Amino acid sequence: MDESSRRRFLALAGGGGLVAALGCRASGARSELVKPLPDALFIRHGAHNAETRLESLSPGQLVTPNDRFYVRNHGPTPRLSAAGWRLEIHGDAVARPVSLTYDELVTLPSRTITRYLECAGNGRAFFAELLGFAADGDPWRDGAYGVATWTGVPLARLLGLAGLRDGAAWVMPVGLDGDGYARPLPLAKAMMEDTILAYRMNGGPLPMDHGFPARVVVPGWIGAASVKWVGALEVSTREPMVPANTEDYVLLGADYPRPPPVLTTQVIRSAVCMPWPGLLPAGRRTIYGLAWSPFGAIARVEVSLDGGHNFTRVARLIGDDLPVAGTWWQLELEAPPGELSITPRAVDEHGHTQPPLSQQRLNDKGYLFAAPVPHPIRFV
């Protein structure tokens, strides 16, 4: 979609809800995000982003409550109404354009999935802290990760309503935010049964900050692929060239070719769910954490107590262990007074594991940090 087409689309598809939202943002009458972001639950990164404090979550409860789910926005949250919203399915690779209201969308056969979302920059802070490499962007640690139960219509069913022409190869969800954020998907990924246009999150309507009225959920891929506030699905024979796949969510750096590789699948990761650094009374303690993989369920979490040199302990997995969602783990520890680091390393059911720090590739934007992270704790 070229710039002039996008401006026309935003003007036509957004309706009064989008115009009102833009007007409110311009006047400064509303805050840039909607839900409360108390310091006890979130670390703020600028005006539009909030990292979940993982220590605020309940061990064993895999699904992240909406009020604690991280926020990663490219701008202010648009205030859209269901009544004024439409989904336009169009492009040179559809047989017939389709326009759906919100009421029509929610009556279509739906699917409910439990999957995680994670920002591509989750772990960016560790490039500097562990490798001495100053990457561009907000210094997320581990909290740009959350699991939700999503309900929506598979993209395959929506595309079937429009009919696909021979040569259809790309599907680009386009958002109704101020810049019309868009990110194309290969048709094969869009047609997977768990790639959905979600309109419910954890049993209720999508919160505004998380994409109301509807957002794409693309399991296993970077969060930037799960476009929020979707107003259109553009189907094409050629890959659309937009900032999200040419400039923003690509791997830049000395080790990467030009044009740069486009980010798609996430990486397997784990985290200790404690403040950074941790502070605990000495003695027998239970340490909790999370582990997740874009490829399947977690098989085990190995733990090092010497800074990641030797992984001699195996944590116990607790609660649900769901593919492309994650699991909680716990470790019983007898800790004397002093300093200690706890380094988890996840292994999934297919044998994928976190690479050693020596194999973590650098990139200018600090994407896809996957190495095990020593979490510092002082026992007193």
Automatic annotation (TrEMBL):
It holds the Pfam family Mo-co_dimer. InterPro entries: Ig_E-set, MoCF_OxRdtse_dimer, Mopterin_OxRdtase_euk, OxRdtase_Mopterin-bd_dom, OxRdtase_Mopterin-bd_sf, TAT_signal. It comes from the Bacteria. Residues 268-356 form the Moybdenum cofactor oxidoreductase dimerisation domain. This is Sulfite oxidase. PANTHER family: SULFITE OXIDASE, MITOCHONDRIAL, SULFITE REDUCTASE. Its cofactor is Mo-molybdopterin. Residues 74-240 form the Oxidoreductase molybdopterin-binding domain. Keywords: Metal-binding, Molybdenum, Oxidoreductase. The lineage of its organism: Bacteria, Pseudomonadati, Myxococcota, Polyangia, Nannocystales.
